[in-house]
Amino acid sequence: MATGQLFSKTTQALFYNYKQLPIQRMLDFDFLCGRETPSVAGIINPGSEGFQKLFFGQEEIAIPVHSTVEAACAAHPTADVFINFASFRSAAASSMSALKQPTIRVVAIIAEGVPESDTKQLIGYAKANNKVVIGPATVGGIQAGAFKIGDTAGTIDNIIQCKLYRPGSVGFVSKSGGMSNELYNTIARVTDGVYEGIAIGGDVFPGSTLSDHVLRFNNIPQIKMIVVLGELGGRDEYSLVEALKQGKINKPVVAWVSGTCATLFKSEVQFGHAGAKSGGEMESAQAKNQALKDAGAVVPTSYEAFEGAIKEAFEQLVSDGKTTPVKEITPPQIPEDLNTAIKSGKVRAPTHIISTISDDRGEEPCYAGVPMSSIVEQGLGVGDVISLLWFKRSLPRYCARFIEICILLCADHGPCVSGAHNSIVTARAGKDLVSCLVSGLLTIGPRFGGAVDDAARYFKDAYDRGLTPYEFVESMKKKGIRVPGIGHRIKRGDNRDKRVELLQLYARENFPSVKYMEYAVQVETYTLSKANNLVLNVDGAIGSLFLDLLAGSGMFTKPEIDEIVEIGYLNGLFVLARSIGLIGHTFDQKRLKQPLYRHPWEDVLYTK
Questions:
Q1: Which intervals hold domain ATP-citrate synthase/succinyl-CoA ligase C-terminal (predicted)?
Q2: Long-range contacts for 246-252 (Cβ within 8 Å, ≥24 apart)?
Q3: Which listed residue (66, 76, 213, 273) is catalytic?
């Protein structure tokens, strides 16, 4: 066991099992104390490597993350404290790994319930190798103004209240982490504050004892008096009694053993800690308090008198000229996290994204204000979800069904079209699903499947301006623009596209009005008089019918319709639908285990 000070203002630690809050609290304490370097040198997260971003004052820093204890110790040889936030199941193994590293001097085990046999092995190894174990079942410890372990002393507000941002003159050791917070505050009220505080942990077999730390405190010149808070159960306090009787401690010791109320119960009572259970008269709080008092410690009559006893002992030291109270300093202001400041109403900050279509902040996600459960309970389909997420309203069922029909009819058009061909070639190159899908989607444009918006835009403009089909087509010809939605490489006037016929049939049976579709048919009649392949294609059919859906449903204003056409909503239908087919072609090629595609020479015209 170490015989002097454990920590200093240059102490650095390795933190096992990443926990954002306790690490940030350590870094905030560092800044409060005026440390030049962060006290956390590295983080150990089994199976992970990289960096974690945290704050050191106002500066954002990146702390390295290592996958093993060995790698972390090798990368940070000056870090000699190991803070273990592993669960009780793995805390012993990881702690032993740390103790076996030559660079590690102190191991703090936070977990409660570590198997006692494992703890005994850790204690034996630590003693044999002159190392210190704090815990298990501990909150850790603190060197005021220098270094703290994890969540020791709680929030920054509590640390400031307890004056732990600068060293005092009192050494404090306790079994309880929660009660240590209380005593830090008590000591700060009646003395010049804590110099070092340790919570050894509440398990039956702590890695280090009360007397271990009291003897250390006795060797630290800056510590002028010692405060001890024990508890019923076990016999740890008796080692302190023996040290006092043997004269090993020459500084005032103010002690109290809590749990005197246990005598009020008729049967044995288990208090909060595993070790807080009286196993006989000698383990009772009363017996321990009496033994400490007989050995020379200052022991009050009750816990309520503990504060007064500490105050009296400190004032006696000052009166005898054995100590001079530490001068108070003003700690720096810790920058407040933005989220905390916003919640408290201290600042306002602009948002980075605006979303009007969905909200996942409640108990369940909502699409345009409609809860997910309602969507399922009402039996809504894909068309209904598209109407909510794309158009921000629930469209009539015939509109949602039309959207679904468009998706069904446009899902695929065979392996030879450019999009499917690209996805097939990419799949045969061994690429992943997303790469195959994107390679096919990238071909969608004015020449392949991307004419839906243009067809709607031009048909709407021509109809709204009252142009005859002749005037419309000839004006487009003069501009050198092919009429979007007209023309097909395979279909002819005597071999119409079945998809177009199905869409038109559905619209005539269900839509209140099909004025734009009828106008597109009139345009087709004129273009067929010029060439037999200038038929209304599926882009033109969807484009014109979607105009009828928007206008006939009565749910959209004219500016909204114009905006929908301008933004490119309608091409979204083709992109969504064709994604189904492109994914299908990708799976098909992978299922068939097709080899890398190479285009045949005979299908290429080589020329100068």
A1: 173-298
A2: 248/215, 248/218, 249/214, 249/215, 249/218, 250/218, 251/217, 251/218, 251/223, 251/224, 251/225, 251/226, 252/224, 252/225, 252/226, 252/298, 252/313, 252/316, 252/317
A3: 273
